[in-house]
Amino acid sequence: MAASDLLRPLSxxxxxxxxxxxxxxxxxxxxxxxxxxxxxLSGGGSELQRTLVLELRLPRTLGAFATGGLLAVxxxxxxxxxxxxxxxxxxxxxxxxxxxxxxxxxLSGLAGWLVSGSAFAGALLSTLLVFGLAxxxxxxxxxxxxxxxxxxxxxxxxxxxxxxxxxxxxxxxxMLYWLMGDLSQSASPGPALALLVGVCVLLMPLGRxxxxxxxxxxQAAVLGVSVRPLEWLVYLVASxxxxxAVTIAGTVGFVGLVVPHLLRLLLGNDQRLILPAxxxxxxxxxxxxxxxxxxxxxxxxxxxxxxxxxxxVPTFLYLLYRNR
Amino acid sequence: xxxxxxxxxxxxxxxxTDGAPLSWSAAAGEVWGILGPxxxxxxxxxxxxxxxxxxxxxxxxxxxxxxxxxxxxxxxRRLGLVxxxxxxxxxxxxxxxxxxxxxxxxxxxxxxxxxxxxxxxEALYRVDMAxxxxxxxxxxxxxxxxRVRLATVLTQDPGVWLLDEPTNHLDLHxxxxxxxxxxxxxxxxxxxxxxxxxxxxxxxxxxxxxLLFPDGQACWGPVREMLVPAALENLYGQSLRATxxxxxxxFVPG
Lengths: 324, 254
Description:
The structure holds two protein chains of two kinds.
Chain A: H1 3-26, H2 34-41, H3 47-82, H4 94-107, H5 113-135, H6 142-166, H7 172-180, H8 190-203, H9 207-213, H10 217-222, H11 227-249, H12 255-267, H13 271-295, H14 304-322
Chain B: E1 2-10, E2 25-27, E3 31-35, H1 42-49, E4 57-62, E5 65-66, H2 72-78, E6 79-82, H3 94-99, H4 114-126, H5 142-156, E7 160-164, H6 172-187, E8 191-195, H7 199-205, E9 208-212, E10 218-222, H8 223-226, H9 229-236, E11 240-245, E12 248-253
Parallel strand pairs in B: 3-8, 3-9, 6-7, 7-8
Antiparallel strand pairs in B: 1-2, 1-4, 4-5, 9-10, 11-12
Helix pairs in contact in B: 4-5
C-alpha cells in the first residue's frame, strides 16, 4: 500500500463527514440555511443564530460524531484483536456494565454527569472483569475472551432488566432512552473528540503491525511483533474508547460491528486505511442518524440507536449479499 | 559459524517429563530433517527454536546469540518459520500474504515500496503462485496455501528457515519443486531445518537428520549413518525394507 492509496478514500470520507456535520447543524425545529450556518461558523450571524448553532446544535453534532467514530474504531480494533468478525465492544459486555451502572445511578436519583461517570466506571469495571476472568490461570485465547464477554453481557442484561422491573414508572422512559442511545445530554464533546483524534494518531505507526496481528498471534510473533503487549494495548484503548462513547450517548449498538465491516468490504483490510476510515465513517453515520432521529417525527425524537439499526441493517445485508 | 545452535535443550511438552537434551548445531548451507512419529514433539521443537515456546531447560542460539537476548524483531530478521496449519484470520490476497514477510524489515511508519512488492512477486514466482496473486488465500487449495506460506518466508528472507512439514498437502511435482527450492536456498548459504514424514524425501534431500523417539530419546547425524532400517523400524514401530536407487536409499514399508 502506498500513501496515495490512503489519500483518496480518506479525503472522500472527510468531505462526507463535513457535509454531514453542516446538514446536521442546519436541521432542527428552527430551520437555518447552510449559508447562515457557514456565516455563524466563520464568526458572523445574529445573536440567536450564534446561540442556536454554537451552544445547542454543534456540541450535540460533534458529540454524535465523536461517539460514532469511537465506537467504529473500537469495534475494528476488537475484531483484529480477536480475529473474529463478530467481536465488538458491545458483544464483549462493556456496554452492559456501563448501562447497568448508569441505570443504577438513575434509580438512586442521580442525574447529569453522575450518571455518565457511573457509566464510564461500569464500562471499565466490565473490561477488567472480562479480561481478568478470560486470562485466568491458563492461556489467553480469543475464543475464551469472546465467550467470557458474551456470558458477562448476558449477566449484565439480566441485571438491567431487574433494574427496569423495580424502577418507578416515571423513570422508565429516561432509562429506556439511555439504553437505546440518547445524544440530547452531550454538552461537551471536546474530550471525546480529542480521544478519537489521539487514538488515530497513536495507531497510525501501528497500522502495519496490526495487519500482521490480524493474521494470528503465532504468525505475528515470527514476523517480529511483540504480541502480548500489543494485545493489551489494543484491548485497553478499545475499552477506553467504548467507555467514553457510552458516557456521551448511552448504548448505541451496531456502529462498532457494522461500520468496520462495511469499510472492509469496500476498501479491503489494511488497518492503516480502515482505522481512520472507521473514525470518519462511524462519525458520519451517527451524525446522520441523529439528524434523522431529531427530524423524522419532530418535535418528538427517536432513540438514535434505533435509527442506526434502521440504516445499517439493510445496507450491511445488501453488501454481504452482493459480495457473495 | 553455527547459524543455529542447541545447547542441552529440552523441549517443554505439556504432560511429559522425559526428554533427552539436544545439543547440535546447524551450519550455513545445511539442510536438516526432523523425523519421528506423530505427537513426539516435532512441532513443539520447531516452535521452541523460533522462540514461540519457552524450553524446559537449555538454550537456543541463532547466529551465535542466545534467543532471550534478541528482540522479536531482530529474531524475525534472522529466522523464519513456515507453519503447518493455516493461520489466516481475515481474508487476504495471495500477494498481501506474501508481502507481510517484509514486516520485520520496515520501520513503523514506512509503507511497502515498489522494491518490497517486487520481492513478494519474485517469491510467489519461485513457488509457482505468481499467476494467482490477486486470489483470496481462503479460496485456495491446501497445497496452494502451503506454497503461499513458503512465499511469505521467502519475502522475509531470513538466514535460518524452520519448516513444519513443508510438503504437506503438496502434489508430487510440487513436493519435488519445494525440495529443490530448499536445496537452492541452502546453496545460497541459508540453514534449513524441517520436520518431515516422508523418509524418501529426507534421504534424498537432507544432509543431516534428527530422530525423535517416542520414549523421549533422540539421536542425530548424517543421513547416511542415521537412515538405516533398524533405527527407523524402532522409530516408527513399523517394519521397513530398504534399497538403493541412483545412490540414494529408498524405503518401503515391509
